[in-house]
Amino acid sequence: MRKMRRKGLASMAVQTVATAKNVDLGPASALSCRECGERFELGPIFACELCFGPLEIAYDLPVGDPEGLRKRIEAGPANIWRYAPLLPVPEDVAGKPNLNPGWTKLVQADNLARELGVEPGKLFVKDDSGNPTHSFKDRVVAQALEAARAFGFTTLSCSSTGNLAGAVGAAAARAGFRSCVFIPHDLEQGKVVMAAVYGGDLVGIEGTYDDVNRFCSELIGDPLGEGWGFVNVNLRPYYAEGSKTLAYEICEQLGWRLPDQLVIPIASGSQLTKIDKGLQELIKLGLVEDKPYKIFGAQAEGCSPVSAAFKAGHDVVRPQKPNTIAKSLAIGNPADGPYVLDIARRTGGAVEDVDDAQVVDAIKLLARTEGIFAETAGGVTVGVTKKLIEAGALDPSLTTVVLNTGDGLKTLDAVAPTTGPTATIRPSLDAFRDAGLA
Amino acid sequence: MRKMRRKGLASMAVQTVATAKNVDLGPASALSCRECGERFELGPIFACELCFGPLEIAYDLPVGDPEGLRKRIEAGPANIWRYAPLLPVPEDVAGKPNLNPGWTKLVQADNLARELGVEPGKLFVKDDSGNPTHSFKDRVVAQALEAARAFGFTTLSCSSTGNLAGAVGAAAARAGFRSCVFIPHDLEQGKVVMAAVYGGDLVGIEGTYDDVNRFCSELIGDPLGEGWGFVNVNLRPYYAEGSKTLAYEICEQLGWRLPDQLVIPIASGSQLTKIDKGLQELIKLGLVEDKPYKIFGAQAEGCSPVSAAFKAGHDVVRPQKPNTIAKSLAIGNPADGPYVLDIARRTGGAVEDVDDAQVVDAIKLLARTEGIFAETAGGVTVGVTKKLIEAGALDPSLTTVVLNTGDGLKTLDAVAPTTGPTATIRPSLDAFRDAGLA
């Protein structure tokens, strides 16, 4: 990863098509290195020139008038742009063409609570399958899109094996960008259709997902990629901020209150770290009362490098070769793994994993209790929640929010082998009576 | 149809488990025959005892204080229950466990408008793929569920080939009802999974969809079906009212204004008639200014009995055997066909159809212009809109709303054969350059 970043960084300096001087990204004031704190002008760069640490957005946040800010947010649109004053986007973002994701349902999951032994009224599912392309990726892509607009990019791109491809293709279509998305050539047809239907260019790469990523890094450093915004590479600092909106929404939907416990899936780990950042911002802005909260990370056993490091007490994450049905979480070398470990330990949370069978069971559990059909990543968080409660690590008497980041329609294969009709009968009352279902 | 209704009616009189005396369904005051006007107490009946006409809900609507009503609605939840004062549901419905569908996006479709030659800012897509199970069926099932609760039913049921099965299964799960859904035994595995994953009973019937329907009619008349609410049979009058919420939302999202033209898909025709009913109610209540609007019905050529009748100037609809990829619209003998004809003619609209190739083209057109991946029914409405504009039947200078009632993820097969990668290449810059996509 480090090597790729260095290379990307060096080349991006040449490619910057706009700088802070003519860029309006609202309260975003600079890029700041997460490791050494060095600051850079806003631009399509993602790694520190000094220490190669990841860059993130620094803000001039509207502190000092929490009541005014809260009213402004509540009067805003029913999507992520209600939080525009806290995001790297121009003030008039809500009027620009994009998919307007967010403000998804926070479901009070009383049936699931009963099954898991959680106190009634204390368990919530933040259901991001309600986003326009049915995954949380719409949140992050919407941010990257605004950055791409600000920097004068005309093509939106990414490497992807699924959700991200659709989110980029759809967002580019709405916003009038060209899109060019790279995928491994042997993806299932369903995923290819979801990525291709929005009419952008879709390029199958003969190789693995790692090959696709390596190719994209090369492309960013080449004149061929000029004018291209790779949402999860050269626009990553902006892109990643989209996950903060999950924190904002959860707290606002709880009545401007911090939850006590959150269970969040880990792919690269970025989402978890940004949710923590969002919660901290709400505290600093006075929008919620400051109080402790615990963050729990969830992985699939077949790709559990962060969980393994947490349990072993390590500060670094040893890469794994993924082998799990939770493909949207299958990042064997998660860039933000160490930060996730920090957060889980600092907040008194944990990182846990469940095996594929538990993932499938959890998808079905959530579906039959709450009518929410989650993708495998949702099975991971629900499964981990169950496991953490059983182990006594998660307190069932406290307000707990579990994230479902995607839609079961996209990972039908996970449940198909074990999900079918109760009975098949002739169309007669006798046959129905014999089936014993009346 | 008539024969089935008669049979259902006779048997339902025995089965009624609650009557108007102890039923609280808010402003719903009675059932009223659409043909002869005879009124009946609220109950799980669906056909007139006198003339066998369809029953619909009569209301005591809150007339006389439009400003107060508007404020009450605007202060309500971001789902269909903001309109509870206009629906057959108890006043406290928003606090009861259900999927809380609705308040889906009304997308200003400027890119699509440009392609279709519609004036900028005048074309909108009401995108019901944002509902919990990603189709408009969540709206109608939510109403049926409240009626089922009011009548003391404990099992929610339906016959279905797709969207409805998932909507019923999910709603029953959330609300703590048992569900038992009937499908043809030879459905595609994907649809079976979507219907079965919510954990209710799913029964495959050896036969066609017509056989499934006939079996359900028998079951309603048999003690085996006691305590069962069939959302689209004995709860149909309540169920159908859910479509009114599309009219309410469209007008509120336009700033409490009637659109000039609406393009609505026709399956049974119920949705179109209820949207008209909803618009009329808003006028009567003084929530929108009274002005003319035109309603256009959309069918697939392979199942276009209403379109054929409209074009031939007939008042009755001759049944067809469906043969189209738009399976969610494939009702060859649409119960509300004659009412649809009335409305199209009364409002100065029309009924039109497009062939399967045009449906596929329209799905792709909507996806590449607006980033909305519609199911085949959405391809039908967009395709019909294009055709009507080209024919001069739909005025491109007026405010037009096109409905997308479902999600492309559920009908991937429709676009899969013609949707794929632009190119497949080796992971090298040279190969990418050669592909001519930079």
Notes on the structure:
- 2 copies of one chain form a homodimer.
- With 438 residues, chain A is α/β, with parallel strands linked by helices.
- Chain A folds into 2 domains: 2-63 and 135-239, Rossmann fold (3-Layer(aba) Sandwich), CATH 3.40.50.1100; 105-134 and 241-418, Rossmann fold, CATH 3.40.50.1100.
- The first copy, chain A, has helices spanning 2-15, 66-74, 110-116, 137-150, 163-175, 189-196, 209-220, 236-241, 244-253, 270-284, 305-312, 337-347, 356-370, 376-390, 412-415, 429-435; strands spanning 28-33, 39-40, 55-59, 105-108, 123-127, 155-159, 178-184, 201-205, 228-230, 261-265, 294-300, 350-354, 400-404, 423-425.
- Chain A has a 6-stranded mixed sheet, with helices on both faces.
- In chain A, β1 and β2 form a beta hairpin.
- In chain A, α4 packs across α5 and α5 packs parallel to α6 (189-196).
- The longest helix of chain A has 15 residues, at 270-284.
- The model of chain A is unreliable at 1-18 (pLDDT under 50).
- At the A-B interface, α5, α6, β8, α7 and α13 of A face α5, α6, β8, α7 and α13 of B.
